[in-house]
Amino acid sequence: MGFLFVALGGALGAAARYAISLIPVRSGFPFPTLITNITGAMLIGFIVGIAGENSKISPNTVLFWKTGVCGGFTTFSTFSLEAFTLFEGKSYISGTIYIILSVVFCLTGIFCGRKLAAIIR
User: Fold this and answer.
1) 61 with 98: CB under 8 angstroms?
2) CA-CA distances (angstroms) from residue 46 to 52, 66, 77, 83?
3) Is the pTM for the entire model greater than 0.85?
4) Where does the pLDDT of residue 7 fall: very low under 50, low under 70, confident under 90, or very high at 90 and above?
5) Is the pLDDT of residue 8 over 90?
6) How far apart are CA 20 and CA 113, in angstroms?
7) Angle between helices 31-50 and 76-88 in degrees, nearest 10
């Protein structure tokens, strides 16, 4: 049943992400993506905060919003939550390493993926 809640939330999140991408922006800076990532981080922070240990919110509702909507909207929200959680738990070195590795390797992954695509074309 959890898969259904994730799928439905993911569809909603992906549609919202696409809707934001349709906002006309006259700039070379990726403002729609930045807004999406910040909004997604705020949303997942709110969900985690409201669905704390003593919450009466059902696990399926949390799955719908946290994994589904936020995951479909932006995975950056999950990355941000995980980094924040490491820092909150005073794992400063792990948090810093996680951030650096994520950014460096994801940018490297994009570079490699584009190079591979250029070879295949």
Assistant:
1) no
2) 10, 10, 11, 16
3) no
4) very high
5) yes
6) 25
7) 50
Angle, helix 31-50 to helix 2-21, in steps of 10 degrees = 150
Place of tokens 């950056």: 76
- What is the reported pLDDT for 83? 93
Angle, CA of 105, 39 and 68, to the nearest 5°: 75
What CA–CA distance (Å, rounded) separates 83 from 75? 13
Q: Among 52, 57, 61, which Cα is nearest to 6's?
A: 61
What tokens appear for 36 in the block? Answer: 């999406």
Mapping DSSP onto H, E and C, the string for the chain reads CHHHHHHHHHHHHHHHHHHHHCCCCCCCCCHHHHHHHHHHHHHHHHHHHHCCCCCCCCHHHHHHHHHHHHHHHCCHHHHHHHHHHHHHCCCHHHHHHHHHHHHHHHHHHHHHHHHHHHHHC
